[in-house]
C-alpha cells in the first residue's frame, strides 16, 4: 500500500523500492554497512538512469531482491535477470532493475520496508562467486554504457576502474590464503582482459564541419550553466569542437539531415531563423537549396531582417524551416509558431528547437519578469523569457498546426554514434511537418 500510492499519483514509474535493514540469522538488527547504503534522507523520485549510474559506479545493489520491489509489469519484459536481452546469473536482480531503469523513474522510500538477512555460507562471501560476479559486472557496465548509462567517458572509466580495484582485492586475498587455484578459469581471465582493454580504449570523436577526429570535445563556458534545471540537451563537457568551434546542436542537426532527409540532393527552398554559423556555411555550399536566413537584428548584409512573429514572406513559401533556440527569447511564441507554420509549404518539414527542461511539469513564464538580472535568475539567461518542458512545447507546436515527431539519434543509431558527435542519450530533435 505504501508503495502503490506512488504508481497512482506519479507518471512513468518503473518501480518503487525502499531502504533495507540488515538482520542476522536470528532476526536481530545489524548496524548499517556498505551492503545497505541509504542513498536519500527522504523519499525521493529518481530519474531511472540517475539511480542506475549510482549503482554502476558503486557496484552496489541498493534496490534489493524481487520481493522488496513493487514494479510496473508493463515495463517488465517477462524475463528476470536480463539486460537488453542478455542473461545474467550472478547479478540477475541488478540486471533486471537496470533494464527497467532505462524506461522510467524510480521512487526510493527512505524508511526500511524490508530486511536483508546475513548468514554464513552466503554466495556473497564465497570467493569464486565474488569473482564471477565481478566478471558479470564488467559485462553489465559495458552494456549499460552502450545503452546510455554513464553518459560521460569519465564516469564509465571510473566504474570500470572500481571494478578492477575490487577484482584486485579478491585476487590479493586469494593469494594470501593460498586459494588462487580456486578462482582461476578462462572465463574470468577473459573478463579481466576485457576490462583492462576497455579501460585504456580511447573513443574517437568526430566533427562533420571540419572533418577532424580528436580525443575529446571541449566544454562550453561556465556562464551558460544553470544547475537549477535538468536540460534534455546538456552536453556540458562535449559541447564545442576544439578545432572549428561547432556546437553540439549543429552536429546533431547535420547528422539528422545527412542520415534521414534528402535535403542535400533535391531542389528545396529553406528558411533559417537566427542561423548558426557552421550550419549556415554548410547550407550555402549546396546550389540545390534556395537558402534564406534572417534574424531580428541581421549580423551581415547577406542576412535578412526577419521578425519571427511577423515574417514578411507569403504563405506556403518554404519547403524546409529551421528555427533553433529562438522561441525562448520571444514573448509571443504562439504567434511565432503560427507564422512558421504559415510560411511552410504543405508537406513541408522543419526543425524547431528550444532548450527543454526535464524536471518541470509545465512551461514556466512570467511577463512581469522583465529585467535582465531577474530573467537570468528565473530562466537561465538575461534574454530568455521562459522555461519549456517537453509536453508543453509539443502542445504549443501542435496548437499552431504542426504535426510533431521526436528524433533521438542515440535510439536510432546507437550510443556509439551519438558519442562520436559529442551527443548524449537524451538529445532530442523536434521535427515538425505541415
Describe this structure in words.
This protein has 434 residues and is of the alpha/beta class. The chain has three domains: 1-119, no CATH class; 123-201, no CATH class; 208-433, Rossmann fold, CATH 3.40.50. The protein is built from 14 helices and 18 strands. It has helices spanning 4-9, 48-58, 92-101, 127-145, 153-176, 180-183, 186-199, 248-260, 277-283, 333-343, 372-379, 390-399, 409-413, 415-420, and strands spanning 13-23, 44-46, 70-71, 82-83, 86-87, 105-117, 205-207, 212-214, 268-273, 289-295, 304-305, 318-324, 344-353, 356-357, 364-365, 386-389, 403-408, 428-433. Strand 7 and strand 8 (212-214) form a beta hairpin. The longest helix is centred in the middle third of the chain and has 24 residues, at 153-176. One of its GO terms (molecular function) is S-adenosylmethionine-dependent methyltransferase activity. InterPro entries: Methyltransf_11, Nucleotide-diphossugar_trans, SAM-dependent_MTases_sf. This is Methyltransferase domain-containing protein. It comes from Bacillus wiedmannii.
